[in-house]
Amino acid sequence: MSEKKHEADGVKLSALEEDILTLLRGLEMYGLEILDGLNDARPIPIGFGSLYPTLNRLEKKGLVSWKWGDEQDETGGARRKYYKVTGLGANVLREVQEYREKLANRGAAQGQPGLQGT
Questions:
Q1: DSSP-assigned states of every residue in 21-82
Q2: One digit per residue, pLDDT tens: the chain, 118 residues?
Q3: Which helix (H) or strand (E) holds 91?
């Protein structure tokens, strides 16, 4: 078993954490961009009061990292903190998504109504 696989074992993700990692995969985004991306199609929108504590938890788990942007953006606003998924975060997300796919396929194979358009 690789060390990266071993590091990902036992890391739990909430639904919001999974959503954030999925949105950030391959991108660097600051808070408002993340919030807009999440809330675009979300049935129950979230606010900054949910976003930033979740980003802090993801950072403590080693699943996201961040860096400061330029001192000020062109509009004179505050300095932005840009977040991105770490290697560990990508591994954990991949494992969770593979698990969800297996569940969906298992249900479809057993003829469960409501899965995979049945």
A1: HHHHTT--EEHHHHHHHHHTS-SS---HHHHHHHHHHHHHTTSEEEEE--SS-TT--PPPEE
A2: 444 455 667 789 999 999 999 999 999 999 999 999 999 988 999 999 999 999 999 999 999 999 999 876 566 778 899 999 999 999 999 999 999 999 988 867 776 665 555 4
A3: helix 87-109
Residue whose C-alpha is closest to residue 46's, from 16, 90, 72, 67 = 16
What is this structure's pTM? 0.80
Structure tokens at 95: 């494992």
CA-CA distance, 44 to 37, in Å (whole number)? 13
* Distance from C-alpha of 68 to C-alpha of 84, rounded to nearest angstrom: 12
Distances (CA, A) of 11 to 7, 8, 18, 54, 99: 8, 6, 12, 14, 13
Q: What are phi and psi of 39, to 5 degrees?
A: -80, -10
